[in-house]
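yo, Protein obstructor-E is done. seq:
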Amino acid sequence: MAKIVISALLCLAMFGSMVLCSPECPFPNGRFASGDQCDAYTECLDDVPTAKLCPDGLLFHQRTKATGECTYAPYSTCKERARLQPANGTDECPRQFGFYPNGDETKCGVYRNCAHGVASITKCPEGLAFNEETYQCDWPDLVGSCNAEAFLGFNCPAAEPVDAIAPEVDVGPEGELRYYRHPQTCKKYFVCVNGHPRLYNCGKYLAFNSESKLCDFYNKVPECYALLKEKQRLKAEKQAKF
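structure:
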C-alpha cells in the first residue's frame, strides 16, 4: 500500500494530476532498475510494466529518474543490485558483451572486445596494460592481473649506495621514482615507481638524457648521438651499394 501511495505521489509531482502508476512504474513511461538484479530493468509504457534483461554482459544504468540504458560495467551504478543473469559465454568470451583480459599476465597489453560472443583483439598503446576494473589502458603495475616486469621485459635495478652514500631519489605523488634508459634504444626509458617499471617514449627525434631525466636533442646526449651518427653512416653505405 505504501509503495502505491509513493508511486502516486511521484506521478502527481511529475504530471500535476492524480495519475495512478503501478508499483513497478514510478512514472507512467520510462525505464527503471529492477530489484536486486543489475542487468534487469522494467520498461513502462502508459503505466504498463514489462520486465526486461540487458544483453548478457551489459548492466542497466539509471541515468535519470525515468531514463536508463544498458551499458558496460564501469559506466553503470549498481550499488546493492549485485545479482546478474547466468552467463551465456562462448569459447572466446566469458559473456556475450564486455572487455576482458587475454589471460596472460606477460601479454597484458592486449584484451578481448566481445560483442555477440565474438572477440576481437585490441591493443593498448605501447607500455600500457588493460585494466578490467576500469575498462581502460593503465600502467601495468596498477593492474592486478599483469606482471609489469615480464610484460615490459625490464626489472628495476636495486638502488646501490655510491661511496656509502645512498643515491638521490625523486619522490612524486605515487612514491619513489628512478629513471633508466631503455637498454635497446635511446628513444625510450623506464620510470621505476616504487620498484616497478613504466615505459615512456621520447618520440622520433629525441633521446633520453640520463642526467636531466628528460627527453633531449640527440646532440645533447653524447652516447646516443654517437649511435645515431653510426646508424646514419651504415644507412648511407647501404644505399650507396644500390
